[in-house]
Amino acid sequence: MSLLQIKNLSVEFGSDKNPFRAVEGLDLTVDQGEIVGIVGESGSGKSVTMMAMMGLLEGQGRIVADKLQFDGKNLLTISARERRKIVGKDISMIFQDPMTALNPSFTVGYQIMEVLKLHQGLRGAALKARALELMEMVEIPAAASRLSAYPHQLSGGMSQRVAIAMAIACNPKLLIADEPTTALDVTIQAQIMELLVSLQQSQNMALILITHDLAVVAEVAQRLAVMYAGQVAEMGQVPDIFRHPSHPYTEALLKSIPEHSKGAHRLSTLPGIVPGQYDRPSGCLLSPRCPYVQERCRAERPALTAQRQGAVRCHFPLYDKES
Amino acid sequence: MFSFILRRLGLLLPTFFGITLITFGLIRLIPGDPVEVMVGERTLDPQMHADAMHRLGLDKPIYLQYVDYLHNLATGHLGESLVTKDSVWKEFTTLFPATLELAVMAMLFAAVFGLLAGVIAAIKRGSIFDHGVMGLALTGFSMPIFWWGLILIMFFSVKLGWTPVSGRLDLAFDIAPRTGFMLIDAWLAEAADPSLNAGAFKDALKHLILPAIVLGTIPLAVIARMTRSSMLEVLREDYVRTARAKGLSPARVIFIHTLRNAMIPVLTVMGLQVGTLMGGAVLTETIFSWPGIGKWLIDAISRRDYPVVQNGILMVATLVILVNFIVDILYGIANPRIRHAK
């Protein structure tokens, strides 16, 4: 059985009369110990999906799903109190901007120890020793003295390491990294990614990597979900998708990686933007931007259909077994 | 931290200087002089008036009087009241506990209810509670203190008879002033001799409650509004989301992770409210015949008791400055980013 199973998840914001679906009919499964990449441009619903799953939307969004199950527990019917026993312990999350993700009023040590006290009941010397151990696990130099440092005294990279230490404190089964390197310097980005992957392997965690950096996904992830306008456009094994993208949107994303357009005069781009609340086309959501668009695409919304070891949401997938 | 305190102390000197100049000037701008006021309706012989002014040193040119005043201050002489001949320092220290007791209760009332109302309004943003609290806060902030005091007296003291109209304690009790704080003194007296002073503490509390509410109303409104807006700002911060993602209870997220940061601007506002409190004490003490600094100063002004007005106000101002200074230090403790600033 998969560690995380999401079936037909929708998240709506706004009033009942005028709802906006940030996520629509999303399916996703994650197995223990695997790395799944979720890719898509800004506003495609990547983060919202994960926040909804963790119960972090705080009553702002309405969540509907056929199934939302983690480690055998139904997250749809679970009480807030029960959910808090899972969140931060078995599922934890790292956010995009480490400089604002830590509370400026408390020392780094306090913020790490807070999780350990809450979920593992550690106290006294054992608590401090574990916090120190975590700081060393995320390779923070002079860890002992950094425990009493405040977040503003740390660099962005160091802060992200602290955030990672906090997230892995209780040996979670699932770690969600929401664009963990976007706000960091290029040189630090690689180090943080390496750290995450090595921790994922040593702790045998599942890792969901939310990013818009396809190069990172190609390097570390086994499976990939490409999201567009709140829906999964395509999902499958990383090698399959990178060799033969099936969805026109995936193809466009791959073409826009600078390394892929060597020799080309101009970087390939997909014109247009993700449709917003009021300008959703009646057919395929990509139809106004799709280079291969046909009559049927404008009229009828495609469903997610199984293909290879994944699925694609397109009437005319680019990769076809028969062809 | 030490250099932080030193720097702040250095800024105090010019402030003191300004206060002496203002109080010295303002009291002399009011028509009439102490001798005229003392004599009152009776006709005054010009020669006697001149003699009396000379005795008081008020016939010297005004700049010399100011220099004398500064000289006395610098050597630690606060002078004597022109009316009672008691030293200003002694009068101040005798009366101050009454004002302090009132101010502390008012601030306590304002802080507890202001913070609570602000936090709940922020969490339930847009709800009826939020709109209600903010509407009431605006009303409270705009209310003239003397009118509000009279309304409360009319309703609670005259109509319902729940609280006494004025003073600090019923005359039936005989309580030796030990600390000067009536609540403590009454409690001590009651404990020492339960038969004689039974119910003294309750009576002192009853006397204190209305003036404290009146004096605390404006600070309450200011604190509630500031807490709400500051909480709303901090609730949007990423680190609050991080706190929730840790699985912390909503109470811990609100009161530890959010309020701690939201308190920083609220603390500053609270410190500034001490000034309002001292100004409000003058009105409140007059309405409730509360024997404190406020009533003392009002009486001194109407008697043109120059030394009392000048030095009384100077001491009150010093106190306000000191409290703000302490708030600055607390601010540094609440906000590590300031504490570590070089």
Could you say what the CATH architecture of the largest domain in chain B is? Answer: Orthogonal Bundle
Q: What percent of residues of chain A are in strands?
A: 15-25%
Give me the secondary-structure category of chain A: alpha/beta
Helix content of chain B: over 70%
CATH superfamily descriptor of chain A: P-loop containing nucleotide triphosphate hydrolases
Q: Indicate the CATH architecture of chain A.
A: 3-Layer(aba) Sandwich
Which parts of chain A are unreliable, with pLDDT below 50 for 5 consecutive residues or more? none
* CATH overall fold name of chain A: Rossmann fold
Largest sheet of chain B: none
Tell how many strands the DSSP assignment of chain A holds.
13
Alpha-carbon Rg of chain A, integer = 21 Å
CATH topology of the largest domain in chain B: MetI-like fold
Distance between the termini of chain B: 9 Å
Given the C-alpha coordinates, what overall shape of chain A results?
globular
Largest interface: A-B, 30 and 20 residues
Short recap of the structure:
The complex is a heterodimer of chains A (323) and B (342). Chain A contains twelve helices and 13 strands.
Describe the protein.
The complex is a heterodimer of chains A (323) and B (342). Chain A is α/β, with parallel strands linked by helices. Chain A has one domain: P-loop containing nucleotide triphosphate hydrolases (Rossmann fold). Chain A is 33% helix and 21% strand. Chain A has twelve helices and 13 strands. Chain A has an eight-stranded mixed sheet with strand order 7-8-9-3-10-11-13-12, with helices on both faces. In chain A, strands 1, 2, 4, 5 and 6 form a five-stranded antiparallel sheet that branches. Chain A starts with a strand and ends in an 11-residue tail after the last strand. By secondary structure, chain B is mainly alpha-helical. Chain B has helices at residues 2-10, 12-29, 34-39, 46-55, 62-74, 88-123, 128-142, 145-159, 182-192, 200-235, 238-245, 250-287, 293-302, 306-334, 336-339. Chain B is globular and about 85 Å long. Chain B has two domains: 2-74, no CATH class; 88-339, MetI-like (MetI-like fold), CATH 1.10.3720. The longest helix of chain B has 38 residues, at 250-287.
